[in-house]
Write a structure and sequence with these properties.
The chain has 586 residues and is mainly alpha-helical. It has 25 helices and eight strands. The chain has two domains: 421 residues, no CATH class; 149 residues, Transcription Regulator spoIIAA, CATH 3.30.750. The protein has a six-stranded mixed beta sheet with strand order 4-3-5-6-7-8.
Length: 586
């Protein structure tokens, strides 16, 4: 009989993947490892979720709501077993950026719009997953993500300066203006006890990480500064504290589907949905490389989508996979998604019984927690690496970074600009793919005559086009072919090496059609060798194969050259010709 695990894997299919691992919990080792990992992640998640809620402009308990059910749902319906879902810095910042201009005159709508945004993000991700459109995320290129993440980390860190110095200033239209106002106020009116509390939190977190890397540095800093705040009556000294946190689990509240609000939040929902999933999937892939588990991008979209829908229905805000907590989860020994369920249950315990203990938690400590969390997001080496791999990608990363900073808090402008620039540069590069005239090298292979300074035949030309033949470069292809014809007045045969032509669109087919007729009128035969299947499928559907001639398509270049020599017969002495077919490699 088949094992429970194999049966569950087949039954679970795509929509309930947790059935594939739930049977493993019968083994004590897996259950014990998941319990330890779940509690360990919760020790990081509880203070982080409270800090990120404030980053999103929400009361701290809404961060705990986002850390309660969403991680469980994502673990049950996602494809990654170790991905830790919940509030994250970048998505929290994007939530605040999306909501701030919409509720400036009606701050009482902030909570409702945050929940509605989570619901919209979830529906968008779920639909993409069910329609198996995870490929759309590929439009967010790695350089765009690098530039945006670096800029987002700086924006997040600088947005906490007011809480570090204990000053409050009015927000300006541009983030950098708000930062300047904050620094001016800090120089004149900094609250020294608040600054001291923030410095203490930093010292504790840095020191514990250096001396005891496996200890929960954030939790220890939170507990210590909270006890100190209570002891010295930090609130009475003018310091800002978290204050009273409602006790109990969140109630189910379906956000009002206001059409006006939906239209205002649509762009932000799409942007957050794509960025959040891109972040989650990149983390999942990194962990899968270590655990050797199989990932399904569309299934992960389903998991992330359902988790955001639940977040929206339980008074939370958009969530995603977390780099830091996923690493903690994996290193703590998590085997299955049950670890995330344990994490959610620990958060539930916190909401039910422990929130009164957090009354005196200093806001400065939460600001320090946020800054510590985003420090690792600032990475220069990937930008340098992208520049080395392809200078245009380095430009995309730098421009995305600069525009995201310049347009903050309108973060979607930076993303859209980066994607547009990335696609534009891709089209620009493919407009002029490499075009080479080939001849026989001393080793018998066909090489570029310009690079290797090779002679060629006046009667036969072999050319290679290293790119798909489509609307953006079809004219360039035609111009290069005609240039070869103009440079060789005696030319009678031109052979196109089609190995690099992966696709042929309508414009490319039309150019090839007219080019063959134009060359034929000049007494030149156009032949194609080493064609891809998709290339041949297109010319068969359009009938171009009959226009050119079925006999002029060859699986090997050697066969095309031999055909040309046979057509020339004895009219041309091939003894010293570089394209002597007996010397050409296949």
């Amino acid at each position: 009989m088949p094992s429970f695990a194999s049966f569950a894997a087949r039954l679970g299919g795509n929509f309930v993947p947790f059935l594939a691992w739930v049977g493993e919990l019968r083994h004590g080792r897996a259950l014990r490892s998941d319990l330890i990992a779940g509690v360990t992640v919760a020790l990081v998640l509880v203070p982080q979720s409270m800090a990120y809620a404030q980053l999103a402009g929400l009361p701290v308990h809404h961060g705990l709501y986002a850390a309660f059910l969403p991680p469980m749902i994502a673990a049950l319906f996602g494809s990654s077993r170790q991905l830790a879902t919940g509030p994250v810095a970048v998505v929290s910042l994007m939530t605040a950026a999306a909501l701030a201009p919409l509720v400036a005159d009606h701050p009482e709508l902030w909570l409702a719009y945050a929940a509605l945004l989570a619901l919209m993000v979830g529906v968008f991700q779920l639909v993409l997953g069910l329609l198996r459109l995870g490929i759309l995320v590929d439009f967010l290129s790695h350089p765009v993500i690098i530039g945006f993440t670096n800029a987002g980390a700086l924006i997040i860190a600088t947005s906490q300066l007011g809480k570090l110095f204990g000053v409050d200033v009015a927000s300006a239209d541009q983030h950098y203006e708000t930062v300047l106002r904050t620094l001016d106020a800090a120089l004149l009116h900094a609250h020294l006890p608040t600054l001291g509390m923030a410095a203490l939190a930093f010292v504790l977190m840095f020191g514990i990480r250096a001396l005891l890397p496996r200890a929960p540095a954030i939790l220890i800093a939170v507990i210590f500064t909270t006890v100190l705040s209570y002891t010295i009556e930090f609130e009475a000294m003018g310091g800002a504290v978290v204050g009273a946190i409602p006790v109990g689990l969140p109630a189910v509240v379906v956000p009002s589907l206001d059409l006006h609000a939906l239209s205002l939040l649509l762009t932000a929902a799409v942007t957050i949905g794509l960025i959040g999933f891109m972040e989650a999937m990149s983390i999942a892939k990194a962990m899968a490389a270590r655990t050797r588990q199989r990932l399904d991008a569309n299934q992960e979209l389903v998991g992330q989508g359902l988790s955001n829908i639940v977040a929206g229905m339980f008074a939370a805000y958009p969530v995603s996979g977390s780099f830091s907590r996923s690493a903690v989860n994996l290193n703590a020994g998590a085997v299955t998604g049950f670890a995330s369920i344990v994490t959610g249950l620990v958060v539930a315990v916190t909401l039910l019984w422990l929130t009164p203990l957090l009354y005196h938690l200093p806001q400065a400590t939460l600001a320090a927690v946020i800054i510590m969390a985003v420090i690792n997001l600032i990475k220069i080496k990937p930008v340098i690496h992208a520049w080395k791999a392809e200078p245009a990608d380095g430009v995309v990363a730098v421009v995305t970074f600069a525009l995201t900073l310049a347009w903050a808090p309108h973060l979607d402008y930076g993303i859209v600009s980066g994607v547009g620039l990335s696609l534009g540069l891709y089209v620009f590069r493919t407009m002029r793919p490499r075009f080479a005239v080939l001849s026989r090298h001393i080793d018998g292979t066909l090489r570029d005559i310009k690079i290797h300074h090779l002679p060629t035949s006046p009667k036969i030309a072999v050319v290679r086009f290293d790119g798909s033949l489509y609307f953006a470069n079809a004219g360039y292809f035609e111009t290069k072919i005609l240039s070869v014809v103009a440079d060789n007045p005696e030319l009678e045969f031109i052979i196109v090496d089609g190995e690099g032509i992966n696709q042929l669109d309508a414009t490319g087919e039309e150019v090839l059609h007219h080019l063959s007729e134009r060359l034929r009128d000049q007494g030149i035969v156009l032949m194609v060798a080493r064609m891809k299947k998709q290339f041949m499928d297109t010319i068969r559907r359009t009938g171009l194969i009959d226009v050119i001639g079925n006999e002029l398509f060859f699986p090997r270049i050697t066969m095309a050259i031999e055909f040309a020599w046979d057509q020339l017969g004895e009219r041309y002495d091939r003894t010293n010709c570089p394209l002597n077919p007996q010397a050409v490699a296949k």
